[in-house]
Amino acid sequence: RGIGPGDRVGVALPRSAALPVALMAVLRAGAAFVPLDPEDGSARRAGMIARAAPRVILAPAGMRLGDTPVMTLDAPGPERDPIAPSPDDPAYVLFTSGSTGTPKGVVIAHDAIVNRLLWMRETYGFGPVDRILQKTPTTFDVSVWELFLPFLSGGALVLAPPGAHRDPVALAGLVRAHGITAMHFVPSMLDLFLDAPASDGLRIARVFASGEALPARLSDLFHRRITGQLHNLYGPTEAAVDVTAHRARPGVQGASVPIGRPVWNTRCYLLDGQGRPVPDGVPGRLFLAGRQLAQGYLGQPELTAERFVPDPFHPGARMYDTGDLAIADADGVLTYAGRSDAQAKIRGVRIEPAEIEAALFATGLVAQGAVLVDAHAARLLAYAVPRPGATGDAIRAALAARLPQALLPGQVIALDRMPLTPSGKLDRKALPRAFGEGAAGRPAHSATERLLARLYAEILHLPAPPGAQTDFFVAGGDSLAAVRLCLRLEEELGRDPGLGAVLERPALGDLAAWLDRNAAGDDGTGPVLHLGRAAQGAAPLFAIHPAGGLCWCYRTLAQALPDRAVIGLQSPLLHADAPDPASLTDMARAYMDRAERIQPEGPLSLIGWSLGGIIAHAMAAEAERRGRRIDRLLLLDAYPSACWRDEPEPDEASALRALLAIAGFDPDAHRDLVTRDAIMGFLAARGHPLAQLPGAVQAGVIRSVRATNRLVRAHREPRLRAPLTHVGALRDQAGTGRHAGLWAAHAGRIEALELDCHHPDLIAPQWIARFAPALRGALAPGHAP
């Protein structure tokens, strides 16, 4: 289309392999790319497009973007030789919040961003062995180094699926699955990531944090949970991503990690109100100079001249007024000390309250209004005196049409009048506290509703538990807060409902009803079930499913082992599309693959109840074959496969009754329950979540029971070097010839604990309380059977 130097091209593509191709194509044509959020249909984006005036926008087919021509990636056209841009040509234009009420387009040239990228490559030694995770939306400048550093260093670019950047569990899975060596977090998201059990024990060579002050406590937590380096970076959009850097080590003194020293070809000045350098240890306004400065603001020469001022220390050069305050120590290391104006950052997004206030009045629904940053809860609050007929909900809906989600106030609080000081200024201290709109509905009454009310109040900093009509997002929540809610629900209920459940049912009563109906929903039948959280430095305990394929039976055990993350490995046979394994050894190999993705190194600990013990033993054999050491192998009333070789295969009724054993009931005590309806009715009458199993999962449990029993009959146990701890149920094994000594031929040493109970009692709370101390002792460091 003849696009080249001096032109701008909008890019409104979701994260996929097409995204870096499109960005590279724009640069190869010599033009500058303008990233646009494909999910943002607000008037703000329309204003950005009008300001940037791109020649064309690369977007998915069917997307409407005003009058600008849209070009899809498969559009036909003649090949042309690329035009090499000059160092002074713009590479990209990024829009950021503006104090004038409209977003500002920051123009970054090739010379500036290349300096930044080459500094990072050389300083941190990036090369072909690296695998860099790209998860930041392209509308934020961190995405630039994530996308282009792999091309400059020879590393691999790993693109996170859309939406994964908000999900700490998904991110931890990506790190493990793809061997990620470098990634970035805004500190508030890093906090959520480290709070998720899935992140514990990860190895990530370099993690970079920027966008907000990095709390010292977060650095300490990182080093307790992650093996790797943490680096704190600082820089505004107006200076090509980052201009200072500091390695964050454990034990940092003070509230936050320093932002460090300047990168290549960059100067930092701390000046007082008269433009004079301040002494070490004294706060000063931070000015930046050097090669990475932006060319200015697109189409706003007056604003450019106001913020990019002459450098008095280098005649002919410019410096940028960040508006940030910082302190330097005697070694020249800088520490961020806050803002000198009303600008704020919420989860790394620059917020100018004036821009949101302008949008507030532009709705035409507000007579008076003000926007404040609630620093404690990290959210925006809008206060408004509505015009006749308008409501807080209507105002917020109108704002949502004008602003992207990141700039949308969590609450619009309607007032009869704005409180004023005697001098006529807004009396901010007299503004009412934030509250949950809809909280005046009926009080929470069920146990699940009361739990959610407590968690809503905790996470959203509400003054009291809200009522059943409270909408999580209207009450101030956002996607990150929803992630925290999922983590807290996992702690309280032992299962993560998934972010989608909160997004789709944010009203407290609706979410509670869904949780009650879906006690065993899809989240409980996946291949990995996280049942407990680890203490500092503790390796996980992998719990292997019994014949029915589910690991729910280990929940009480996990609660009794508070210092261990108990991770259940569940059967793929629960799902109809999974093929039958050829042998129990093949199943054990697949489970070891799963365990090694979670714990790639270090000694392993395994536990299995019933048939799960046989699989756990086979996994231990596979681990030793791979050169891994078994720290603990714990079998709960499990016996070698020879004990079952001559037993008849279970029929469907026997397989169904396995559901009773999984639920903690003795199948032999309920031989009258022989049909699926009878068994599910029995469990439902006792309030057991297994009664909520979908029919397909019930069929999967039956399939798992029958298939694994067949595999056991053909299995032959190898001998382990590792010792084995066995807990037996005497009442069911007396007179059968089954005892812990049968494992002597298949393990290094045997430690036996015999209990006067039945087989299902080993997962019952009252019996777990009796033998849990012995298990804790067996799992303790230094214990030798």
Uncertain runs with pLDDT below 50, 5 residues or more? 436-440
User: What does the main sheet amount to?
Assistant: 7 strands, mixed
Shape: elongated
Spatial arrangement of strands, main beta sheet = 25-27-26-28-29-30-31
Question: How big is the Rg?
Answer: 30 Å
The number of strands is 31
Distance between the termini: 75 Å
Oligomerization status of the protein chains: single chain
Task: Work out the helix count.
Answer: 22
Q: Indicate the mean pLDDT.
A: 84
Overall structural class, as computed from helix and strand content, comes to alpha/beta
Helical coverage, percent range: 25-40%
Q: Strand percentage, roughly?
A: 15-25%
Quick summary of this structure?
This protein has 785 residues and is of the alpha/beta class. Strands 25-27-26-28-29-30-31 form a seven-stranded mixed beta sheet, sandwiched between helices.
Task: Note the main attributes of this structure.
elongated, 31 strands, 7-stranded mixed β-sheet, about 775 residues, alpha/beta
Can you characterise this structure?
With 785 residues, the chain is an alpha/beta fold. It is built from 22 helices and 31 strands. The chain has a 7-stranded mixed beta sheet, with helices on both faces. A 5-stranded mixed beta sheet has the order 9-10-11-12-13. Strand 23 (379-386), helix 10 and strand 24 form a beta-alpha-beta unit. Helix 3 (110-124) packs across helix 4 (142-153), helix 11 crosses helix 12 (479-493) and helix 18 crosses helix 20 (695-713). The model is unreliable at 436-440 (pLDDT under 50).
